[in-house]
Amino acid sequence: MMNTGRIIDLEQPRTTGMPVIDSHKPGYYYALHRRHTDTYDPENTGARSSASGMIICMEHAGTHIDALCHQAEHLTLCGGIPVRDAEKHGGFSRHAVEEIPPIVGPAVLLDVPALLGVPVLEQEYLISRDELMACCESQGVSIQSGDVVLVRTGNAQRWDDEPSYLAGPGVEARASEWLADQGVIAVGADTMAWDVIGRFDEEYGCHLPGHLILLARRGVFIIENLNLEELARAGSARFTLICLPLKFVGATGSPVRPVAIIDDR
């Protein structure tokens, strides 16, 4: 039976001024294309009028989910698929966002600032595997196969300050490996890129090693730019997550509006 408890919205608002890295700009633009005054003609159409607009956005701006085709290792997608066999002018024929199933199921929030006794992690702070394990112990929760794990860093509090937000914390590569080993189907965080942006990982030989591990190697989806503040205040480490990607055929990602449903009885 579906949990019908308290619903908490995890999406950040989409505006032209929201934080976006340069490679994903323009993040969001809305133009009111048809106004009510354009269509109002009481003599011919009566009292009714209409308005409509045009939305321009990048796949990886705002709260969104990464499809597996978003990352490759040595030009190879998850499951050993060469990018040349899947990458077409109109998008990807394999591992694109329309292949992501609706995510409706159990999820866990790991609150790292609460573990460390701070309101927000420092910029570029690298969250370790041991810290995630300690979160599980302190919160009395275990990660099960099929779970989605959301990691709170407190970075959502910087949403209105783009430079500070983009310099936010991230999850280390070994922690990403550990989460994948637990059998999670997706992970997410209140940061731009799950990893620490601009940090090169010597062991994995790349930037954003979590993206390499989770998307290209292990088939785990990544949800980014979440707002986890209200969920953290609710104090529920386990909840039901609903996250529905749009069916943008061939796309490498999709905007999402995730919600958490908690049993607050």
Structural notes for this entry:
With 265 residues, the protein is of the alpha+beta class. The chain has one domain: Putative cyclase (Glucose Oxidase, domain 1, 3-Layer(bba) Sandwich). 20% of the residues lie in helices and 27% in strands. It has eight helices and 19 strands. The strands form six sheets. A nine-stranded mixed β-sheet has the order 1-19-17-9-11-13-16-4-18. Helix 6 runs parallel beside helix 7. The radius of gyration is 20 Å and the shape is globular. The two termini are 16 Å apart. The model has no long low-confidence stretch (mean pLDDT 96).
Mean pLDDT: 96
Structural class: alpha+beta
How does the overall form come out from the CA principal axes?
A: globular
Note the run of SSEs as H and E.
EEHEEEEHEEEHEHEHEHEEEHEHEEE
CATH topology: Glucose Oxidase, domain 1
Give the beta-strand count: 19
Our count of domains comes out at: 1
Tell me the name of the CATH homologous superfamily: Putative cyclase
Describe the main β-sheet briefly: 9 strands, mixed
Radius of gyration: 20 Å
Summarize the structure.
This protein has 265 residues and is of the alpha+beta class. 20% of the residues lie in helices and 27% in strands.
Question: Layout of helices and strands, plus pairs?
Answer:
Elements: E1 6-9, E2 28-34, H1 36-39, E3 52-57, E4 64-66, E5 76-77, E6 81-82, H2 83-86, E7 87-88, E8 91-92, E9 103-111, H3 112-116, E10 126-127, H4 129-139, E11 148-152, H5 162-166, E12 170-171, H6 173-181, E13 186-189, E14 200-201, E15 206-207, H7 209-217, E16 221-224, H8 229-234, E17 238-243, E18 253-255, E19 259-262
Parallel strand pairs: 9-11, 10-12, 11-13, 13-16
Antiparallel strand pairs: 1-19, 2-3, 4-16, 4-18, 5-6, 7-8, 9-17, 14-15, 17-19
Helix pairs in contact: 6-7
